[in-house]
Amino acid sequence: MNSPPAVDPITWRDGWYAFARRCDSPNFGPRPKDVAVDLVVLHSVSLPPGEYGGDAVQQLFCNTLDWNAHPYFKQMEGLQVSAHFFIQRGGELWQFVSCDDRAWHAGQSRFGERSNCNDFSIGIELEGLEGNTFEQPQYETLLALLPAIAGHYPVAHIAGHEHIAPGRKSDPGPGFDWDYLRNRCGFLPPYFPDKHM
Hints:
CATH class: Alpha Beta
CATH superfamily: Peptidoglycan recognition protein-like
Radius of gyration: 16 Å
Low-confidence stretches: 1-5
């Protein structure tokens, strides 16, 4: 059995990443005891869909979104969700939940033989729309974040929401460049979804 990664008190403190802008979400809970946090799940989100640069995503994750501010928001009224991280189009990085805790990003999900992916995963939202492309600064931030996570948690897999909830979710979608990520991040192919190897 592998030993746990060494703790870096400069980069990480109680599951909070030093290089992210912190914005605490109330939407989290404890992970099951002795769970190995070995999966990173990539998502895409924009609110309203296809509109970028506002703070609606941050408001959604912190339960402060005005449901009357846009017609699209009404269909989400009362929704309580979160992710650990959010990367905006310009590469700005936010963190909402300690990675030591369970964020509410995956919903009904399965990875391999395990269900309830929130229990053992870290969720990263990329500002974008399913099927559209993502910006270079987002990839650069992701390429810095993933090794930092893998240096602190026993990450063995990186998948999209589409891979852990097929038929229910399709993000980050075909606009996300898995090959670019795989070739640049230095992780071996088994880290990635089979169809992107």
